[in-house]
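Long-time lurker, first post.

We've been arguing in lab meeting about whether magnesium ion would sit comfortably in this protein at all. Half the group thinks yes, half thinks no, and nobody has a model to point at. So I'm putting the question to the forum: if I give you the sequence and the SMILES, can you give me back a predicted structure of the complex? Inputs are below. Any interpretation is welcome too.
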Amino acid sequence: MINQFVTLENVSLKYGKDNSSLALEGLNITVTQGEFVAVVGPSGCGKSSLMKIVTGLQPVTKGLIRVGGNLVKEPLNFVGMAFQNSSLLPWRTVLENVLLPMEIVEPYAKNFKKNYREYSEKASSLLQLVGLNGYEKKFPWQLSGGMQQRVQLCRAIIHEPSLLMLDEPFGALDMFTREELWSILQNLWMEKRPTIILVTHDLREAVFLADRVLVMSTRPGKIIHEVIVKQIRPRDLKSSYQPESVDLIAELRNCIQEARVH
Ligand SMILES: Nc1ncnc2c1ncn2[C@@H]1O[C@H](COP(=O)(O)OP(=O)(O)OP(=O)(O)O)[C@@H](O)[C@H]1O
Ligand SMILES: [Mg+2]
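Top reply:
Settle the argument with this. Predicted structure of the protein with magnesium ion, as tokens:
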């Protein structure tokens, strides 16, 4: 029991009053502590909704969600989040955006002024890790979409959260940058072992990064399939072209395709 970190019990979500507004239905998901889970599924099936309910941003209509053993009743501020289309604050510099969780989340927040230098250095080293050294003083609107996504990733991980929720964090990146960031994320996960839930449309990404890939059906979303990825870590980028990965990617693809027609 103790290492079940995120649990959803029979969770449903309606955005309106009638049944046609059902976005998620009868979801049962258990993610263990330190596990890396990817969620894939057709557009509009409820992946982002799943991210919102787990982090408490959106209350559920039915069922229970627990994170770290506690019922989720309000937004969880300790979770590292990089959400689809969520934006950086335009009036804050890149560095100030990355530092945001350190101002809000304890135990960092109470020492924010005192440790400002240390925190800034940490932010700068993360920016360097994702190839953005020298951009600290720029504003988000002076960066490309892909650069902004990398800043968001730094913001999501700076406070070393025990739970990292990533909703298509690499969508706006070219393939090579995306692959570089997969490796960075894999290293980070291996080093700090946060629990990660990653939503992606990129099946190669899901199989390269995750221990387990969940497939959601079309709306109302529920889990219709699960694939376990056993490849040893650290995984090499070339591994996604090996037969084991290719077979899993094909299995996921077929499953999503079937879900779309039915
Ligand atoms: N705040 C909201 N109010 C009403 N309906 C919503 C709201 N948010 C999402 N929906 C609806 O719920 C369904 C699921 O949306 P969601 O954003 O979770 O899908 P998704 O799987 O993330 O899609 P995509 O892959 O395109 O990002 C969609 O039909 C969407 O229109
Ligand atoms: Mg989405």
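For your lab meeting: The chain has seven helices and ten strands. The chain has a mean pLDDT of 94. Whichever side wins, do check it experimentally.
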